[in-house]
Amino acid sequence: MALLDILQYPDPRLHKVAKPVAAVDERVRTIVADMFETMYAAKGVGLAATQVDIHERIIVVDTSEQRDQPMVLINPEIVRRSTDCKEWEEGCLSLPGIYDKVTRPDTIVVRALDARGEAFEIEADGLLSVCVQHEMDHLEGKVFVDHLSALKRNRIKSRMRKRQREVQPA
Ligand code: K1U
Ligand code: ZN
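^ thats the input. predicted complex w/ K1U below
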């Protein structure tokens, strides 16, 4: 297994649209294992392949308190979303320390392939629902700050750029 580098906003590669996985094989299972290692090490509850510069439709999540319920979603599709929406405070491993409120459908039904290539469907609510929607946005090249006003987004962009200059002086 390997720890992967997580792209930091505003890296333009975070805005690439991921391609469907053609076959769930050993190559894909290695990516999944590396993504779990990276997500757990970063103390995240989810990670999309886009964030580790792999532009394929792969998501890993674990929203359990014990961190013992890993879930893989390959080629995920939302087949149903509730009309009622809920506001949640979101974070992102590509924007460490930045949190803001985003409104999304409360409940979703998602269809995906697991790590064996078998199709499954889950109904998600609460943090799992928010997390899966946030990760599916990543696969579309969308970051949670894209849901905020341009004013807030530009402030966050400046903060991230300043932080990156301080870490890596030119
Ligand atoms: O995509 C990511 O960068 C992972 C992200 C998932 C997420 C968490 C919360 C709301 C929406 C999406 C994170 O894991 S952020 C960091 C985190 O560990 C966390 C934040 C809020 C609640 C629980 C965990
Ligand atoms: Zn994120």
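The first helix runs from residue 26 to 41.
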